[in-house]
Amino acid sequence: MRLRLVAALVAAAVFVLVSAYLGYQAGQLDRSSEEWDFYGSSELRPGERKEEKPSQDEAPVVRAAAAADADRPAPIVVDNDVNAALQNALQRADAQPRSTARAPLSHVRRAARYEVEIWSKAAIGDYFWTDIFRGSTKYIADGHYSHGEQIVSDVRLRFRAGSGLKPANAPPTTRHVVMILNAHNPEKMVTAKALLDELAGLRHVRNVGLVVLGSELCDNQWLEPYLPFVKFVFMVYHDASMIDNDKIFEWPLGIATYRKFERRKDLAQLRLDQPREYTCNMMATLHVNTTRELLVRALERSALVATDETPSVDAIRASAFQYLTAELGPGHERLSQEHLTDKNLLANYPAPVRSCLVANRANWAAQDSKEETQHYHEALLTSQFTLCPKGLNVMCYRIFEACELGSIPIVEDVPTPECGPEFNQLTLLKAHNAPFIYVRDWNNIAAVLDNELADKAAVLKRQRDVVEWYATFKTAMRDKFMSVLLNSFAGFQD
């Protein structure tokens, strides 16, 4: 009996010691992954604020329309399975690899074979982490620093960003780093080079990869001296002189997170089973003697610019009800779901009045006012098509923001002379079979819209295709990045 009691006490003592040791190790991991900072101190100061940044699904959004009233007419085209089928497709597209764990920061503690630091000094880092990798972050030190982590393909990714990020203060245990940089203009290039020089001085770092916001005019030669130092580069904008799909790859521009663009909350917000209020929208800085100016003149000539007399979507729905009631005859004042989905009845219903919401400004601004941001968001959310004319480059934020809100991009497909004579600036989108509409002459925009609007059901289907494609595209880019990382980092053992 005494021996059993002693054995039980010994077992209990061992359990306590092991638990304490594991708790200590977890605490050390917490310190290394969360609490070492880039300001020079070894730990967070007492009372520093830590807040959870809302996830993409939880982030507040501005709705484009009020909730439907009980007596509001139903949509013209109703398919109860549309949103459910699309939701299933999006879930399949968003499915994480089997080796991926998505969990709150405090729970991402399972073993990972590799550990990689991702240091972001550019706004595209937010799109990289939040949209491509669907990660969340914590704000630390009054928002000057943010941190998040997750495990993908047996790699623990630790994401860090913010004005307080100082690579030189990284602990000596850091081995593998991906740096996200802004080299969009000469001033940003100077900062990017300084950060790379600082990173090159960290002798304990074995592998370095880059994600770079490149020059819209393909002025990226500043990067060449660093290519022997880095293992791979993902570059925004298709610089044909550098992108070889061997060491340098193209990366999507994404949405303008620096402008606080509102991501969608859910599919219901997109109203993919009904026509939208406007045929299209064109909202941009209107540079003189550019195709943007040409596009606006073409819209005005075709009487496509929306006015105060343009009927609202509710008026369009009411008109459809009147049409169907007349077609069905007396006794069908209350239309059934079957009638509303009868394509034969709806085949002859005239299309909504073609109108485009056009709002342009003369000078580019880094930030929009709250009202401008709201107006732009509502324009995308209430337009079937979003017109995407060329700026300095044909690749623009508007393309991805339209996809986010279920508006079909109509993209100008012309060369950027500074990047080469070929039509290669949309290579990434075309390689992934983006279901967009490509145009080379905006003078034909009225005919393009007429052709698309001839089949109303096809327009709704293309909108759903755009939303599903965008989810699949982001997953494909995540998988491509992880594949390149795993195959490029030598001695990937720590």
UniProtKB/TrEMBL annotation:
<dbReference type="InterPro" id="IPR055286">
    <property type="entry name" value="RXYLT1-like"/>
</dbReference>
<dbReference type="GO" id="GO:0005794">
    <property type="term" value="C:Golgi apparatus"/>
</dbReference>
<protein>
    <recommendedName>
        <fullName>Exostosin GT47 domain-containing protein</fullName>
    </recommendedName>
</protein>
<dbReference type="InterPro" id="IPR057538">
    <property type="entry name" value="RXYLT1_C"/>
</dbReference>
<dbReference type="GO" id="GO:0035269">
    <property type="term" value="P:protein O-linked glycosylation via mannose"/>
</dbReference>
<feature type="domain" description="RXYLT1 N-terminal">
    <location>
        <begin position="116"/>
        <end position="252"/>
    </location>
</feature>
<feature type="signal peptide">
    <location>
        <begin position="1"/>
        <end position="20"/>
    </location>
</feature>
<dbReference type="Pfam" id="PF24786">
    <property type="entry name" value="RXYLT1_N"/>
</dbReference>
<dbReference type="GO" id="GO:0120053">
    <property type="term" value="F:ribitol beta-1,4-xylosyltransferase activity"/>
</dbReference>
<keyword id="KW-0732">Signal</keyword>
<feature type="domain" description="RXYLT1 C-terminal">
    <location>
        <begin position="323"/>
        <end position="489"/>
    </location>
</feature>
<dbReference type="InterPro" id="IPR057539">
    <property type="entry name" value="RXYLT1_N"/>
</dbReference>
<dbReference type="Pfam" id="PF24785">
    <property type="entry name" value="RXYLT1_C"/>
</dbReference>
